[in-house]
Each structure stands twice: as structure tokens, then as C-alpha cells.
Amino acid sequence: MAALTPYTYIQCPCSDSSTLGRSSGPNSPTGSEGDEDDRTFDPRAPRSNYSLYPLEYLLYCEDCHQIRCPRCVSEEIVTYYCPNCLFEVPSSTIKSEGNRCTRSCFQCPICIGPLAVTSVETKPDPGLLAATDNTAAPHSGPYALTCSYCNWSSTEVGIKFDKPNSIHAQLAKLRNGGTTRLTAKERKERRKDPSYRSQAAATTGSEGGAGPGKEEKLDLETQFANLKSFYQRQLADPNSADTGLASLSDLGFSSPTSLSRIMSIYTGGSLQDKKAKSRVGAMREALESDEGLQIADLDESAAIDKLQTDGHDGTASTAQLLDQIPNLGEAHLHGRSRFLSELRPIPYLLRAKRSKRCPVCRHIISKPEAKIQTTRFRIRLVAGSYIPSLAIRPLSLSSASSTSSSGASVPGALLEPLKPTHFLLTFRNPIFDTIKVTLGAPAKTPGRFPSKVTVLCPEFEIDANTDVWDEALKDSGERERERERERRARRGGFEESTTTSSSNNHNNNNNNNAQNQLEVGKIWERGRNWVSIVVEVVPPSLKLGDSTGDGGGVLREDEDVLEIPMFVRVEWESEGGGDEVAVAARDTSGGSKEAREKRELAYWCVLGLGRIRRS
Amino acid sequence: MSRRPPRGEYIETDTGNKVARKATLVGTQNIMLGGKTVIQPEVMIRGDLIRTIQASSQSASGAPPNNTAVSIGRYCFLSRGCCLRPPGRLYKGTFTYMPLRMGDHVFVGPGSVIQAASVGSHVHIGTNVVVGEFAIIKDYVRILDGTVVPPNMVIPSLSIVAGQPARLIGEVPEGGHEAFELRDLYKTVGNNPQPAPS
């Protein structure tokens, strides 16, 4: 079981209506003063997974004064770039070339590692590359793409390149095995070229194949182009010569007219409608390869043989097949390539820099610099600079309290069931105004194993975050104070135990009365812009026998994680219009410009404290 | 780290570097530290693996001005047992090493081996990560524990990568940039460390 470091997730209000409405049960939130709708948030509800985010992932819209999560912002692409060569790709290229890098950036089809262009040292196959051998310099030779992670090489699929650059263009002309593949332009020229056509006809004729099985083997693109032009021709002249007489003469399958004629015989002429006849009669199906007819190759014995020799290891996984880009491979009519030996290098998918907008007011809340090399942002309104951050630390009252607390003091240690454990929540105020924080947590966490939760100080104020320069100027003093505080924190157990020793000793006698352990309503510690408070939890015993309801005897995944839903309400007064935090007035509360404006922000968050020991 | 180490475990230089006495630094004259860098015990930096081609051509002309093997920026943190090793390859028929450059605020987790050509600034490399030869890691990159970054891989800025081989699994969120700062971590080690701020 992995150790669990305490975490805080914040619920984005964009999911409020849905999640709060379907909250788990009739648990009445006792401590949630700020919660108007009297419902507690269940972190274990299936929907919660989609609304909880760590603070870093959240943005903040200054105009709506609301938290925005990755799910509710709308994104706009600023620039496209290749993640491998880090070149910017203009959007016009995206439109013409697609969303792949058209330089020499390729991923290994086996392991997705990057492929490097290397020269092939071994003597190339003279039959395949005789021409390139003559032209190439003696040192360079043909090139191949190799993966330095899994040692895959494009020579395994018979692909070699003449030049070490513009691999993408070269690869587009190569089929697996080294045979050339026609580009769209070449295909068009070839189709137009009568000499080629007659030559092709001659070759098919010389093979003696009048039957369709001996037709010219078309590749996918040519077939598509042929079919397309054929159908376009068909649509263009519906009453061409071959519709009427030819279909009558051969009565073949190819003609829809024959079908309609037969249908009309058996249905008593209902299909003899003139309009229908003329429309149906207009079309026929492709008959020859020139028109795009390709006889399906149903003979799969080769694939079966290969499967027998290579076994399962020789086949490509679903993930590998998904990475393959379509229309480039050998794949024909029946399925995609199924063997590792048919996979082709994958051109890198492009990445994009994106700016984010508030979905409500359409203001930009995050905008990166367009240049790829920089990591700066023009606009970056992160929630971390508007709402208090929350750090959780197990608190050990080692000298005074029982052994359970000392166990919890080690980060990631398991929580002992039924023993009160204390956690220190440190709220840090990022804004330049004093904020008032009100916390609300249900006395018992929702779920099958409710933990008892007591927030010892649910209401407190945090001082303003002083200016950066003040901090810098006061740095030495501040550091001194910090150090002193740290010293105090380290000896906190002792010091605090002296102040609360009476209650602690009292509490050791009767653990049930957890309320009295620490001073209720008192802040544990405070600093310049932070406040620490104590939360006491009594983890439940994870006994499975007495569980009721569905899924009884099994401990579900992460059910042993102690998660506390907590409602946080932050109130502060900001200067109207003066501060950057307070640019616009909130709702109707905005008074005169000079008056200090009251603001409030309320949200649910989830504190993950740790795992409970299974008993 | 909370336990106070015995006095003198680290050598603290004028520029604020904290180098553990138990770290293995080979070829120290070829290792450049930007300052305020922490090198924990059992770290190995192979400064002896300098570019051989350049060195041979320049040895005749006296002291080579630039044969830095490993250069490290400010506020880097090299955890216990990690290894920085300049990458090497065949160049014009002979084998040579190339310098390893590392930016500022780079955290290298325990037991990781770095053979990158360059590591940008604000990079977090987890525990037991292997960064292959001539990999290029840009700024604000987080490499999770146990990742194997294949040789020659380029990891663009603001990426989170994991897996063997490494693949992009996410992006660093806008609010996560400050988490890469290592100033506070720098203060927690050394001969008189301060505890981490809460």
C-alpha cells in the first residue's frame, strides 16, 4: 500500500448544482455555518472525481470572482509546435498537412521512443537500392530511422532513405518493403497519362487475366481516387450510353437496373415509377480497376502462417495500432496491419500552447507567450494567488498524548482506528487584505466508515499578505522571526503541552471526550500571513462484517483513505477599484467607490489525511 | 532531513554551494557550479568525461578555454546517490563526450542517472529516473519516479512525463510553477540546516 501524503483538493463551483444536489445522504452538516443549502459534499461520490482539483490546477476569474477549473474554462490555441524539434507550425500548414510534424521527427512504432536518423552501415540490398548506391557518397550511404530505446530500425520494415533530411516527404513516397508509393499528384498525372494506361492494360492483358481476379492491384489511395472519379462521372451524366443497353445485355450484378427490373417483376410494377426508374437506372457499380473496383483479397493464409511462425509476440497491440496513422500503411480493405513487422514510424503529433478564457465573462484568464521557447505567461490568474492555500501536517503531541499520535507524526503513516489523531491545517493568505475564514465540516465524514471530525477553531482571521518589498526589506527580521517560530514549532509539543497539559492529562483518562483535548476556538499558531489550526479526527475501524448496504463484505478501492469534506468561506474587505483583486464590483454588494467592499468566496474542499490501518 | 547531520558533513563554498564530503566528484576542474547548489552524499558527477576531440585539438595550443564537462546552475539539488554523466557518442568517426548543461532550480531525485545533453531550469526529476544520452529537457518539466527517458528525446516545456520509455502524461498547470522553486529546499540542508517552512 502506497504511503499517502496529505492532500487538499478544491471543488470547482462549476459542478455545484450537479454534485451538491446528488450528495450521498441525509447527513446533516452540523458545523457548516457557511453552507446555505444544508447539504454536505461527499468526496467519495462518483461525480466528485471530476470536480476536485489541487489548488495548482485552478484558475481564478477576476471579473466573476470565481474559481475556474480545467473543466470549465474554454481553451484557445495560441501556437502549434512539434514537441520534438520545437519548431512552430503555422496554422495554414496544419490545414494542409495535418496535425503531424512534417520534418524528420518520428516515434518508434514499437515503443514510441524517438527515432534518430542513422546511416545504414550494412551493405544494402542491391536490388532495392542500386540506384541510390551509385549516387550516394561513400560515407553517407542510405539512412534509416532507428530507435535507441528498443533498437527498432526502419530497415525491419524495409524502409531506407536516400537523404538524412526531410524524412517525412521521403517516407510518404515509400511503402513498407521499399516499394514506392505514389503521391496524389503523381497519381493524377498517371491517370491522365494515356501511355501509362495502355501500358497497364497491356501488362494485365499479357498476364492473360480477363477475369476480375487478375485485375491491376490498386493501392488504397489510387482505388479511392478511381472510385471517386467514377462516381462523379456517374453522377454527371445519368443517361450515359452504358446504362440502358449494356445493362440490358449483360444482366450482371453490376447494374442496379437489372435489380430494379427483377424487383418490378415480382412486386407488380410498383417500382415502375418513372422517376424512380430514371434515378436508379442512372447509377451502376464499378466494374474494373480503372473505375476503382478492387477484388477483396480474402485469402488470409499468409497471415495465418505468419501468426503460426511469429506467435502472439509478432502481433501489434491495440495501442500500437492506434498510434499508427491511417492511409499510409499497406492496410487494404480488410483491416489494418496486424503484425509488428507492418508498423511504420509515427510522425510526432503536434502540441499546442493554449490560452484559457472564463466561460462566463469571456475574459482571458491564462495566456502564454506565443513563442515556443519561452515559458512566460502574459496573463496567468491562478487561484493560488487569490484563495488561501491549505497545508496539512500531522501534529504530534508526543510527550503528552498517547502513542497513536506519535505514529501519525511520521508523514504517510497509517492512522490507527478509533484513536484521536490531530492534524495541523495551515492556511496561508495570498492577498493583501486581511481575510476572515470560516470552516465547516460534517461531524462525521460521509461513507460507510464515518470518521468523527472536530475542527477546533472553525473561525479565524488571517493577516494580510504584506507587500513583496516590505517582505524583502524586513527579510532579516522576518527570517529571525521565522526561525524562532520554527524552533517553537519543533518544540511545539512541549510548549503546547504545558499550556494544555491539564486538558490533555484529563483527556488521557477518558478518550471519548475528544472535545476537551485542545483548547476549542483557539488558533494553534499564527504568523505574518498564515494561521494554523488543529483538526481532530477519530478514524473509524474498518470492520467489514457489520457493514450494511450493497457491496457488503469487500473494502472498496481507497475506502480506507480518510477524507474530510470541508466548506471554506473566505470573507474580506477590499478597496473598491483600487486593488487588482477588486476590479469589479461583486453582484449588488458594490457600494460607493471609496467604501471598502465586502467580498466573499465559498467553496468545498476535501482534505485527504491518510490511510486508516486495516484491522 | 529533519535530523541534524553531524557537523562538517558539507563543504560550503563562498558562492553558497553545499557539497557533501561523501560525494564523488571526478574531474572537479571540469565541473561548474553556479552557486547555491546542494550536492548530497554519494552523488557522482563525472567531470572527467570531457570532450576528447576538442581537448586533443586544443591541448597543443595550451590550456583549453572550455572543456567543461558538467555545468550546473543555481539552486540545483542533487539528491543522494544520483549520477550526472556527460553523454558520449561517435562524432566524425571518433568517440567523444559532450558537455552536460543544467539550468537553475533543478531537482534530481535519489538514485537517478542523468546523461542528458541539456536540462533546463525549474526541472524536477524524480527518484530512480534514467535520462538517456543527449536527451533535451526544457524548462518546467516534471519527470515522475522511475521514468526512463530514452536517448535523444526532447521534452518540451511544461510537460509531465512518466513511463518506460517516457511519454507525455500531462502538462504542468498554470498554478504549479512555484512548486519548482528550490530556495527553501536549499536552506534545509547543510551544516546548520533550517527546517522546511510549513
Please describe what this structure looks like.
The complex is a heterodimer of chains A (615) and B (198). Chain A is of the alpha+beta class. Chain A has helices at residues 16-21, 91-97, 126-135, 167-172, 184-192, 194-206, 220-236, 241-250, 256-266, 274-282, 301-310, 318-323, 403-409, 468-473, 475-490, 492-499, 501-509, and strands at 7-11, 52-54, 59-61, 66-68, 74-81, 88-89, 106-107, 115-119, 143-147, 346-347, 351-357, 364-368, 377-380, 389-395, 421-428, 435-440, 452-455, 459-462, 525-526, 530-538, 561-575, 596-611. Among the domains of chain A are: 7-15 and 52-58 and 390-467 and 521-611, no CATH class; 193-307, no CATH class. Chain A is built from 17 helices and 22 strands. The radius of gyration of chain A is 36 Å and the shape is elongated. Chain A starts with 6 loop residues before the first strand and ends with a strand. By secondary structure, chain B is mostly beta strands. Chain B has one domain (10-44, 70-187): Hexapeptide repeat proteins (UDP N-Acetylglucosamine Acyltransferase, domain 1), CATH 2.160.10.10. Chain B is 7% helix and 35% strand. Chain B has two helices and 23 strands. Chain B has helices spanning 52-59, 183-187, and strands at residues 10-12, 18-20, 24-26, 31-35, 38-39, 44-46, 70-74, 77-78, 83-84, 88-91, 94-97, 100-102, 106-108, 113-114, 118-119, 123-125, 130-131, 136-137, 141-143, 148-149, 154-155, 159-162, 167-171. In chain B, the strands form four sheets. Chain B has a nine-stranded mixed β-sheet with strand order 1-2-5-8-13-16-19-22-23, with no helix packed on it. In chain B, strands 3-6-9-14-17-20 form a six-stranded parallel β-sheet, with no helix packed on it. A six-stranded parallel β-sheet of chain B has the order 4-7-12-15-18-21, with no helix packed on it. Chain A binds chain B through residues 54-59, 70, 81, 83-86, 111-114, 116, 147-150, 351, 356, 366, 372, 375, 377, 380, 382-384, 391, 393, 424, 426, 482-483, 486, 489-490, 530, 532, and chain B through 122, 132-133, 138-140, 148, 150-159, 165, 167-168, 173-176, 178-179, 194-195, 197-198.
